[in-house]
Structures are given as structure tokens and as C-alpha cells.
Amino acid sequence: MKRKIILTAFAATSLIFSSTQAFALINFSAGIPFSHTITGKDTDGSEIDSDSVSGIFIQVGVPIFPGVGMDNYKTKLDTVDLATMIYNLYYLLPIPVINLTLGVGAGSTELQCSTCSSYFEKGPATQWYASFGMPIIPLFDLHLSYRSVSSKMKLKAIYGGTESDFGGNVMGLGIGFNF
Fold first, then answer.
1. Which residues make Cβ contacts (< 8 Å) with residue 104, sequence separation at least 6?
2. Residues of the chain falling short of pLDDT 70
3. Could you report the per-residue pLDDT of 22-41, keeping only the tens digit for each?
């Protein structure tokens, strides 16, 4: 009787847990940003509005150890682009059935236009993020991510050296592959 219970429990947990990243040998994830809300202020104290965002999020990891990733995206502002490049360190929590990822990153932001580099310095950027994924078939999961980005850029000293805050929130959607 005990043998049947143990075999049944083993078979049930194998079926339930086989589709999660917690038991994968390697996981790969790619995503795209779909929303970037800038919460910071411009040098004159006015709000900064974003029109659209495009780019990619990539991450690769193995179970138990932290993984690495990269975010590279551009946010369209009124007449300029805000280019962000951040390298991430993340950890995939070994939770069965759902895929929860927590991470931090550091990189840079830069305004891109014909004269931006002559007025603004390239600024540092940091972020923390969380991603929540649900398996859609045994080896794939669909996930939604939230990133909280901190970024400030200064006007060059000859133009006053004041600082603009380009910090904000980025939402993304992606797909993960586990094998």
C-alpha cells in the first residue's frame, strides 16, 4: 500500500513540476517593452511625456544560480529618443507552477538627436525588476515584467549643469523557453 502511494505521489509531482523552470537545466527568455512611463522631471521642472517604446529584453540562466540579462530599448519623447542599455543580474525563484523572477541592473541612458550629445552628458541608470510567468505548454512560459528605472542626466557644465530625471516604470511582455 505504501509503495502505491509513493509511486502515485511521485508520478503526480513529476507531471505537475515538469513544466516549470525550477526543474529546467537552462532557461532563456526574450521580451519586448510595451509601456514606459517617465515619472521624473526635466531640467526646468516640467513633466516628461513618452510617446512609445521599442526594444528587447534578453536573459539566460541555470537553476539555483543567478542569471544574466540585458535590456536595450528606446523611448520616443517629443523630438528625441531616450536610449537605455542595462545589464541585469537576476534570480529565478524555484516555485512550482509559476515562474517568478527578481532582478537588479545597471547601465546607462542617453538622449539621441542631432544636437543632444552637445548639450547632455550620458547618464547612469539602475533598475530593479520582477517578472511573473505562467507555463503555456511544457517547455514555454508567457511572462509579464515590471521594471523600476532610476536615471538622471546632466546638462553639460557650460549650459548650467542642471539635472533631468528620466526615471520611470517600464512594462514588458515576453516568452521563456526551458530545456
1. 88, 89, 90, 126, 127, 128, 129
2. 1-24, 43, 157-158
3. 456 788 999 999 999 998 87
In the structure grid, which three cell numbers stand for residue 72, read together? 536595450
pTM: 0.82
Query: Which residues, other chains included, contact 68 with Cβ-Cβ below 8 Å and sequence gap of 6+?
Result: 59, 60, 61, 87, 88, 89, 90
Determine the 3-state secondary structure of 89 from DSSP: strand
Number of domains in the chain: 1
E strand or H helix that includes residue 12: helix 2-17
Please give the residue range of the domain that contains residue 106. Answer: 2-178
Can you read off the three cell numbers belonging to residue 32?
A: 519586448
| Angle of CA points 63, 85, 167, to nearest 5° | 105
Nine cell digits for residue 33: 517593452
Nearest residue to 76 (alpha-carbon basis) of 109, 52, 45: 52
* Domain harbouring 150, CATH code: 2.40.160.20
